[in-house]
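STRUCTURE:
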């Protein structure tokens, strides 16, 4: 039974950013453009039935929804997908022998065009490098931006308490509050940290290993031959749905230094601080080396487990990529990515994501990725003031026009005022973008896994939407690279 001392969290409602009669600036601009074209058409002597056509098109673009998106939101997706189709960019194949076949060779055996690649084709401009922190190698993915800055992403393997779900709610709340304090520091301590991402992925938990141990250590007299066979059959049944959970935290830092070694030296203290804070939370935190990061990317494409330090000289580049409208095939595995478009609208317990994180279907795997982008305090306060002003302006326009103020509008106004008050009190703010991905060896298993994922999201009170036409970008967002290339559609 809930008590007043129980800690809950409120994500608010999705803001529509309306400024006039429930319409946002974009929709007002589209409708105004349609009216302007109609005016020019009437002045030019075009018949009225034809002249009003631009207005009808503008209204359709601004209001008609297809699969949860307005036509104005579909336009850039359709244009990008059509351009990729015409240019052949939806499919990509890697030439031999560089690639997976070359991964079994050592770096000294590869030279010329066969030398191990230090780039990742799914992220343009990405290169792999390495530094050292806490006496351990740390792999860094560097990406140059068009604005002259460079993003440096380090990945940490994180292992926590396996009994978190069984802890009392107050202990769960204390652990999550400590994580929240770490995030709040990134908003005020340094503007260099541009993104923090946590990734939770499931991988097959092979029961065959347990069966091998059982037959090697238990004599038939202990359970009897029939008992051992029955237990082995039980393990076979469990293996189809059993899985192991892996968690990674990626920290992206932006630097304007020209040389990568200098930029990494500047960023190293912040990576060390994040690693120490994660360890202080009771989490076993291990920096991933350059080889580990490459192996993790390959394991994500293959749908297999990853163990830091077990693999060397791995080329993460896939052999082939085929992007379709609603799924992406990377080598022999099919992937479908969903965007989290709305968080719970009611207050929830700290463990509200359990149904999503435990959602599984035989033969498919699941990945959850949450991107947190720190917002500078002054920027956050300015946006909060603008949101309060916009909701007040929209409310005034509704009153003058005689429209009823809906519960949605009142909730948005309350959320905007609460957000401004929290920022004034000194709290930090992050923009949140989240994706979840289903992976399976066949399309049939992909569909079954997608249904299980959606059901888990419903139980977690999340709204999911398939990233139609943007599966490749969604796949990259699900990787522990802190790279969210379509933030405007998700955050």
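SEQUENCE:
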């Amino acid at each position: 039974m809930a008590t007043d001392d129980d800690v809950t969290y409120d994500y608010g409602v999705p803001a529509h950013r309306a400024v006039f009669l429930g319409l946002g600036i974009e929709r007002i601009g589209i409708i105004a453009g349609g009216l302007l074209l109609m005016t020019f058409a009437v002045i030019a002597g075009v018949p009225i039935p034809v002249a009003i056509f631009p207005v009808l098109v503008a209204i359709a673009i601004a209001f008609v929804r297809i699969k949860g998106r307005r036509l104005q939101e579909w336009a850039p997706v359709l244009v990008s997908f059509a351009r990729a189709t015409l240019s052949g960019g939806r499919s990509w194949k890697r030439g031999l022998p560089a690639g997976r076949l070359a991964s079994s060779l050592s770096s000294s055996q590869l030279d010329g065009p066969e030398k191990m690649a230090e780039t990742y084709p799914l992220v343009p401009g990405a290169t792999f490098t390495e530094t050292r922190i806490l006496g351990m190698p740390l792999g860094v993915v560097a990406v140059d931006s068009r604005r002259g800055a460079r993003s440096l992403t380090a990945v940490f393997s994180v292992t926590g308490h396996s009994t978190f779900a069984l802890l009392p709610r107050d202990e769960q709340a204390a652990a999550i509050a400590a994580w929240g304090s770490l995030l709040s520091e990134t908003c005020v301590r340094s503007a260099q940290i541009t993104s923090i991402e946590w990734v939770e992925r499931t991988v097959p938990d092979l029961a065959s290993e347990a069966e091998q141990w059982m037959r090697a250590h238990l004599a038939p007299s202990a359970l009897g031959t029939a008992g051992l066979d029955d237990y082995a059959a039980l393990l076979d049944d469990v293996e189809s749905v059993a899985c192991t959970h892996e968690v990674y935290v990626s920290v992206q830092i932006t630097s304007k230094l020209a040389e990568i070694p200098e930029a990494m030296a500047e960023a190293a203290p912040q990576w060390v601080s994040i690693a120490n804070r994660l360890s202080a939370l009771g989490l076993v935190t291990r920096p991933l080396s350059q080889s580990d990061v490459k192996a993790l990317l390959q394991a994500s494409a293959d749908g297999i487990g990853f163990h830091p330090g077990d693999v060397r000289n791995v080329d993460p580049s896939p052999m082939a990529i085929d992007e379709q409208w609603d799924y992406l095939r990377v080598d022999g595995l099919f992937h479908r990515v969903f965007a989290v478009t709305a968080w719970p609208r009611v207050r929830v317990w700290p463990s509200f994501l359990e149904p999503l994180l435990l959602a599984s279907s035989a033969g498919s795997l699941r990945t959850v990725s949450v991107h947190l982008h720190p917002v500078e305090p002054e920027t956050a306060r300015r946006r909060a003031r603008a949101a309060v002003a916009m909701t007040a302006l929209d409310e005034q326009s509704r009153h003058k026009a005689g429209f009823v103020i809906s519960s949605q509008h009142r909730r948005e106004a309350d959320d905007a005022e609460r957000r401004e008050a929290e920022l004034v009190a000194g709290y930090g703010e992050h923009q949140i973008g989240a994706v979840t991905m289903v992976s399976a060896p066949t399309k049939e298993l992909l569909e079954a896994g997608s249904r299980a994922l959606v059901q888990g999201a419903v139980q977690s009170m999340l709204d999911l939407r398939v990233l139609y036409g943007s599966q490749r970008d969604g796949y990259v967002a699900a990787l522990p690279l802190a790279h969210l290339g379509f933030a405007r559609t998700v955050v």
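REMARK: The two ends are 34 Å apart (CA to CA).
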